[in-house]
Amino acid sequence: MTKVVVTMSITDEELNRLKAHCEVFVTGWGKTGMRLTSSEMQEEISDANIVLLGYENLTEDLIRNSPKLQIIGCARSNPVNIDIACASKLKIPVLYTPARNAISTAEYTMGIIISETRNIAKSYHAMKSGRFLGKPEKDFKGSDLRPDVIWNLDGESPYKEFRGVELNCKTLGLIGLGSIGSKVARLAQAFGMKVVAYSLSKDAEKAEALGVQLISLDELLKTSDIVSVHCRVTPETIGLIGNREIELMKSTAYLINTARAVLIDQQALLNALQNKRIAGAALDVFWYEPLPVNHPLLELDNLTITPHLAGSTVEVIERQSKMIVDDVLTWIEGGIPKFVFNPDVLF
Q: Which of 65, 104, 142, 260 fits a disulfide with 313 by CB distance 3.0 to 4.6 angstroms?
């Protein structure tokens, strides 16, 4: 019987589909929350026919020392933890899950845009830290019955300190119009935003279908109230947003990044925020992860930060599980899998 080793997060439903056709062993990150070491991986997969990975690394040595390995699956949009060159040389297909977290990341992007522009996280932190609170009450059985129920308006007031801006009628500039960027465009339009985009692929047909105007990067930076980064990391896009690009932005603009940190020059963004060159930023990705405890970002008050959570939802697990298992079963039954990162090995 075909032996499958699973270290990815997978739903019970899809796991049972696999078990109906294969001998399945679940281990590693998907089971314990701890990634297997290289030696542990070797022990687990040495006689496996199929390996379905989450975040463990699959090196050339591991692949070559697993002589029965026939297909690899990776529950990620980009299987960077797998030696693709080695797998391809050995004619081993590598399955992956493109856009598995596109909805999740797009929704999250809108969430941190709103959090930053309306100071939601900052006001929450202020209250939890003891600011803007009233005097103690003996019990909590009653309520404030005044006709005008408002927070304190005199002196230091959250109503004044955390006054934000609306998204309606603002311009959102998307850098990248792929699976995530295009979904952000739709969500932003529902808020009444005008959406423009800069796309390296110059996909005019997609932009037209979305009602998005394609413009140059410089024009986007000059005219957008919010700039959100959604392009892939390539040699051309590393440091795409630097000092020059930030200088083009409005002083009232916000910079958002839920893609990859290296798309924005670290020092350029720090300087811009420290000197109030732009209104603020919201980041879910960083140049060092975890973020060092002494990083200068933590000292800023014109910034919303979260620990790389944009792709973390229950639905992402459900989606990646079905995508991988569908393709594995298709391959077992002699068909051609749909999502193959190195498709040339199939022919």
A: 104
Distance, in Å, from the CA atom of 140 to the CA atom of 219, rounded to the nearest integer, reads 55
- Among 15, 20, 18, CA closest to 31: 15
What is the CATH architecture assignment of 3-100+314-346? 3-Layer(aba) Sandwich (3.40)
Contact 64, 86 (CB under 8 A): yes
- Which tokens sit at 182? 């295009």
- Angle, in degrees to the nearest 10, between helices 314-332 and 102-117: 160
Annotated catalytic residues are: 260, 289, 308
pLDDT single digits (tens) 134-152: 989 889 888 878 888 788 8
Instruction: Write down the pLDDT at residue 239.
Output: 98
Query: Which residue's entry shows tokens 């935003």?
Result: 193
Question: Order of strands, edge to edge, in the sheet holding 171-175?
Answer: 213-214, 194-198, 171-175, 226-229, 254-257, 280-283, 303-305
CA distance 30 to 113: 31
Binned at pLDDT 50, 70 and 90, residue 160 comes out as very high
Q: In what order do the strands lie in the sheet with 50-53?
A: 23-26, 3-6, 50-53, 71-74, 94-95
Domain 102-128+157-305 belongs to what topology?
A: Rossmann fold (3.40.50)
- Of the candidates 158, 225, 229, 231, the residue with the CA atom closest to the CA atom of residue 191: 225
Whether residue 199 is predicted with pLDDT greater than 80 in this model: the reply is yes
Q: Per DSSP, what are the bridge partners of residue 282?
A: 256, 304
CA distance 57 to 270: 32
- DSSP H or E segment with residue 184: helix 179-190
**Polymer length in residues for the chain:** 347
> In sequence order, what DSSP letters do the residues of 78-128 get, joined into one string?
S-TTB-HHHHHHTT--EE--TTTTHHHHHHHHHHHHHHHHTTHHHHHHHHH
Residue 193: closest CA among 164, 226, 217, 154: 226
Same fold? 3-100+314-346, 102-128+157-305: yes
